Amino acid sequence: MNRLILPVLFAVLYQVHTLPLHTEEDEYLFKSWMSQYNKKYEINEYYQRLQTFLENKKKIERHNAGNHKFSMGLNQFSDMTFTEFKKSYLLTEPQNCSATRGNHVSNNAPYPDMIDWRTKGHYVTDVKNQGACGSCWTFSTTGCLESVTAIATGKLLQLAEQQLVDCAGAFDNHGCNGGLPSHAFEYIMYNKGLMTEQDYPYKAIQGECRFKPELAAAFVKDVVNITKYDEMGMVDAVARLNPVSLAYEVTSDFMHYRDGIYTSTKCHNTTDMVNHAVLAVGYAEQNGTPYWIVKNSWGTNWGINGYFYIERGKNMCGLAACSSYPLPLV
Question: Where do the Cathepsin propeptide inhibitor domain residues begin and end (predicted)?
């Protein structure tokens, strides 16, 4: 009797186990998304990625059905778990980023209600894409130095993130495993210059340092750190002077950000938890909520054409923990 029942039981269990956990519509959506982002998988990985994609889609739909100040959407990261995303795109080395007492001196003058350096002139380069390398700190660094140099000289350069990935290790930076803009500004100052993107192209992988002093195109005279948690100091700098580099903690919902003003109750606001560096290019207010306008380095398909808004005035996710900018040597 048992010999007859067991094969049938195994067959039933196998069928249940192999039944698809998705509909034809799900698979069509996934294949359309794969085509949009030029994704290709081996057959085993295909079903694993499909499952992750559908789980992320449910999370996005649940969030968007709620009462939130920001919305989520499918993007190039929708086939990844947050664990995978962290490993490839965020700072993995602990960052000691705080300036207990910074050297930025605030004016304390009345500030405009809004400012956006993208519309003030040719001062902000296009959004770039760091790829699967935790080099966000280099893009925050180049973005800030590009802007302060353009404000001082009228000439907007495209500067080399790859030089920082390859060469700035002696200043407590770790290539694709993380670093900090303030440390990178120090490197540029003592190294006597940063090359252009054209002369030192980005590879998204750490390699041998190939800096050529004669090709240095941008220079740092001094590094200005804003006192930790002094968010009004950041407002002062962005309102009066230039865009500012900042770091903060990314949690799982942020990878799906689409638009609106990002807020979180899950992220921490302390210096030891920051894991991503970006560039504040302005600030504004919407329906009574003040926010920062921030340039990211995940390409233009993410967020608001590569930008995001994050709530201002609450040290959201630690964004005021370690902000800085360079004084250009021109």
Answer: 30-85
